[in-house]
UniProtKB/TrEMBL annotation:
Natural source organism: Strongylus vulgaris
Keywords tagged on the record: Hydrolase, Metal-binding
Protein's name in the database: PDEase domain-containing protein
Taxonomic path: Eukaryota, Metazoa, Ecdysozoa, Nematoda, Chromadorea
GO molecular function, one term: metal ion binding
Any single Pfam family the record assigns to this protein: PDEase_I
GO biological process: signal transduction
Length: 153
């Protein structure tokens, strides 16, 4: 049940970003209401303080990935019954890599504390994110191949 509730984390990055944007719009609306009532909203609900990529990474590391790691471990034991579980875990891992790449790019561009949500709809930024993730995978695969080759020599 919990993994179903977190299924937006297993969508492709474009859809995951769109869902995150809708969630943060709702959070920010609640934060605005809390401010109007004189309260101080949590960072993730405060449009003036929320850094969405960082919050997404924290959420994935502390909630989504641990849940899906449990599901993945269970699914490996019963893989013949639920083979789809592997691709779900891989998708979540890829999404985490994309959010991390987005955060890195924003830091490099000097926009570490980007506020608002408009950049989540920036197609050029999304292309940069996906390319960075591809390049990191390629480097990692190259390192693994080199290590295997060195072991064989």
């Amino acid at each position: 049940m919990t993994s179903s509730d977190l299924s937006d984390q297993s969508k492709d990055f474009r859809n995951s970003k769109a869902i995150a944007e809708n969630i943060y719009k709702e959070f920010f609306s609640q934060g605005d209401l809390e401010k109007q009532m004189g309260a101080s909203p949590m960072e993730m609900m405060d449009r003036d303080r929320a850094a969405v990529p960082k919050i997404q990474l924290d959420f994935m590391d502390t909630v989504a990935l641990p849940v899906f790691e449990c599901v993945f471990t269970f699914n490996r034991m019963v893989a013949k019954l639920v083979p789809e579980g592997t691709s779900t875990f891989e998708a979540i891992t890829l999404n985490r890599q994309c959010w991390a790449a987005l955060d890195e790019i924003l830091v490099e561009q000097g926009e570490r504390s980007v506020l608002g949500l408009d950049y989540l709809r920036d197609d050029d930024l999304e292309k940069q994110v996906l390319e960075r993730v591809r390049q990191k995978k390629k480097k990692k695969q190259h390192k693994v191949c080199r290590l295997v080759f060195e072991l064989l020599i």
